[in-house]
Amino acid sequence: FASTAPDLKAAAQIFHKDRATIACANCHGDKGDGQGKLSELFDPRPRNFACARTIAGVPDGQLFWIIRFGSPGTAMPANGDLSDEQIWKLVLYLRQLSR
Predict the structure, then answer these.
(1) How many C-beta neighbours within 10 Å does residue 50 have?
(2) Angle, CA 13 vertex, CA 12 and CA 17 arms, to 5°
(3) 19 — pLDDT class (breaks 50, 70, 90)
């Protein structure tokens, strides 16, 4: 997917509120900075996607995998309710947060 305005808007909606269970922003924060309202409940804390150094070293495929299947040893859950297309749009959105 290209970083088009419609794709990024769709991803922002998923990140912030369009989730059946809990929005990504509740843990990762509205700005993706890892400071969501639930972030203090977790150890390790949610990833800071607003930090370019943090996100630059993570390949797109790895971000996809983590969103789809979760991250062992963390509170990051699997997201089997999202389509592949939605996840790829989220990957684009996460890249935008670090700019």
Answers:
(1) 18
(2) 120
(3) low
d(CA 78, CA 97): 21
Token couple for 96: 């935008």
What is the pLDDT confidence band of residue 73, given thresholds at 50, 70 and 90?
A: very high
Sign of CA dihedral 6, 15, 55, 67: negative
The answer to whether 28 touches 75, Cβ cutoff 8 Å, is no
Contact between residue 48 and residue 58 where contact means Cβ atoms under 8 Å apart: no
> For residue 67, which of 45, 82, 46 has the smallest C-alpha distance?
82
Q: Where are the beta strands (DSSP E) in 5-98?
A: none
